[in-house]
Amino acid sequence: MKKTINMFLSAAMALSLAACSGNSPAPEETAETDTAETSVLDQVKERGYLIIGTEGVWSPWTYHDENTDVLTGFDVEVGKEIAAALGVEARFEETDWGSLLSGVSAGRFDIICNGVGYTEDRAEQYEFSDPYVYTRKVLIVSSENDSIHSFEDLAGKTTANSPNSTYATVAEEYGANVEYIDTFGETITLLEQGRIDATINSEVSYLDYMSQHPEAKIKIVAESEGEAVCYPVKKGETELCEAVNKALADLRSSGRLAELSEQFFGGDITNK
Predict the structure, then answer these.
(1) What gap in Å lies between CA 163 and CA 181, rounded to an integer?
(2) Structural domains in the chain?
(3) CA dist 81 to 77, 112, 144, Å?
(4) Considering the entire predicted model, what is its pTM?
(5) Tens digits of residue pLDDT in 105-143
């Protein structure tokens, strides 16, 4: 009888252990769940660095110094300040414009520091920081062009811009045929060679280019009103966005944001 009872108890314990084992998640599954529930801000602080997506070819926003090849620019320096405010290091990953927004959505970057203009459509897909500068879009043509005087004149004309940029979108809205190009310098080359009719870009980028290439045969014929430029992070990551806003507010109140604007843009464009 005793033997029967012991056998019964042993079998029951084995079934109980099997049931517990079957219902318990594997260590890997638990780790994945914990990671999924951890905010990007917590991940940034845990790893000790902020991953910043940027082009590195768009002066004066983000570019390599021609003498040292060191990555610099207004957005690069502000990105470093934001990282410091979070108590971490800034690590930049350079890629083409078309990969920046998709990269932050996929978690490849924590934030994009690359002069991204705010739009309602983008706001549906990303969290945006408060505006940190305001820029105007300008319509640029060759100095010899007398047929384009306004954005409306772009209908049927050929322009060039980075794919998925607000500049390309505006050109298409005015009826232009847009050729996709990676850098502002390449765009101006096409314009001076007569291979395109015009381009739309940032006023500060135009001014920066002209300061370095005063011989360039180009001119501005129209401009938009001031528009907000913000930093995008992944949709839903409100904690990181709030931390970025706090850093920007401190940079603004201390005068550091205006100082960097003067350094890279030749003027204070931090206010509307």
Answers:
(1) 7
(2) 40-134+230-265 (3.40.190.10), 137-224 (3.40.190.10)
(3) 6, 14, 43
(4) 0.75
(5) 999 999 999 999 999 999 999 999 999 999 999 999 999
